[in-house]
């Protein structure tokens, strides 16, 4: 009798675990029953493929002569494509709106600021400088989450923010000295994009948690309302006609590449969210950081620009700040973060000395 009871309870618990197993999909491929290593491999491949293509196409569009003033029109094209993709996905999945329309009006405005200023900044900055600024998103996000959500952070998070600011300042100084394309207007634009991004991340997180909304819903309504905003703004300031007439002269380089650019960005977002779901935020942050580093390398390889080693070591300071932030999140942002980090560094140094002594002994 007892054996049967235990057997039935074990069977019920195993069935419950199978029912609780979350569905993992990359595009139309079901990876739910695949191992976690296979899920990580496929997600990482997808992130690299789509986001490297996204960065390449974005810079490629801005190499078109005369396109530099039309960053906001490119954003309108991107929002239009994102709206179509989001609507198709919502129809397939049967998603309905849960977040109030008033919240979406604010989210759409912030999304417009994030994407619009980011795209437009490429008319005034090198692509690597733009990527380095995006890597430092932690700084305004940290400030925004303290002000909007009342979150508390440990000392490692603040040290990470300081290192990012130092690395960013050194990278920007190097760019201003050697780059013929450097313009302070671009710095202002990408800074505005980061401020909007900090606000949108916190408001979006709060709204999705309270109303249990899906990512597909947020994408559709944020970008569709943002499209209406931007269409009216460009129509009012007469940039819509000039942008449309310029793109009509170069349809393949603008609308054609814009379609691939938008599609790769949209699919990249979905795969990053899947990566977070199956492997966690720590792994996702590591993968996206590596992707950004390779994006910078590809930019130097495919598009001519001056180079200095100050780019390398100032970029490494930024990377150190990013990984301190990731380490802090992994440890839960405890007050003992500095002590644990110091112990870890000492252990690494002891191992290094031990290996060095062995090598010298063998010699």
TrEMBL record:
This is Adenosine 3'-phospho 5'-phosphosulfate transporter 2. One of its GO terms (cellular component) is Golgi membrane. It is found in: Golgi apparatus membrane. It holds the Pfam family UAA. The gene is LOC107218184. Keywords: Membrane, Transmembrane, Transmembrane helix, Transport. It comes from Neodiprion lecontei. The keyword Transmembrane applies. Belongs to the nucleotide-sugar transporter family. SLC35B subfamily. Coiled coil: none annotated. The chain crosses the membrane at residues 40-58, 70-89, 101-125, 156-178, 215-235, 255-275, 282-304, 310-327.
């Amino acid at each position: 009798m007892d054996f049967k009871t235990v057997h039935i309870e074990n069977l019920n618990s195993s069935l419950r675990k199978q029912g609780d197993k979350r569905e993992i999909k990359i595009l139309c491929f079901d990876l739910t029953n695949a191992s976690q290593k296979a899920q990580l491999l496929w997600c990482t491949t997808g992130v690299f493929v789509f986001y490297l293509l996204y960065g390449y196409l974005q810079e490629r569009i801005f190499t078109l002569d005369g396109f530099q003033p039309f960053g906001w029109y490119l954003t309108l094209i991107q929002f239009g494509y994102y709206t179509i993709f989001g609507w198709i996905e919502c129809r397939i999945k049967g998603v309905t709106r849960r977040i109030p329309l008033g919240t979406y009006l604010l989210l759409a405005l912030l999304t417009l600021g994030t994407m619009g200023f980011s795209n437009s900044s490429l008319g005034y900055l090198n692509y690597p400088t733009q990527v380095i600024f995006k890597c430092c998103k932690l700084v305004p996000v940290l400030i925004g989450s303290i002000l909007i959500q009342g979150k508390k952070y440990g000392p490692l998070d603040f040290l990470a923010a300081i290192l990012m600011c130092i690395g960013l300042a050194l990278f920007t100084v190097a760019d201003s000295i050697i780059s013929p394309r450097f313009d302070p207007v671009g710095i202002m634009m990408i800074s505005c994009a980061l401020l909007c991004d900090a606000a949108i991340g916190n408001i979006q997180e709060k709204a999705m948690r309270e109303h249990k909304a899906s990512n597909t819903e947020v994408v559709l309504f944020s970008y569709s309302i943002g499209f209406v905003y931007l269409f009216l703004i460009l129509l009012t300031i007469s940039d819509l006609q000039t942008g449309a007439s310029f793109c009509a002269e170069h349809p393949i380089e603008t609308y054609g590449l814009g379609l691939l650019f938008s599609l790769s960005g949209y699919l990249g977002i979905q795969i990053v969210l899947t990566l977070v779901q199956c492997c966690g935020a720590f792994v996702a942050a590591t993968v996206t950081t590596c992707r950004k580093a390779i994006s910078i390398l590809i930019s130097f390889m495919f598009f001519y620009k001056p180079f200095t080693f100050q780019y390398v070591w100032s970029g490494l300071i930024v990377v150190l700040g990013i990984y301190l932030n990731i380490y802090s999140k992994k440890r839960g942002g405890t007050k003992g973060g500095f002590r644990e980090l110091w112990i870890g560094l000492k252990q690494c140094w002891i191992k290094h000395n031990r290996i060095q002594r062995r090598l010298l002994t063998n010699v």
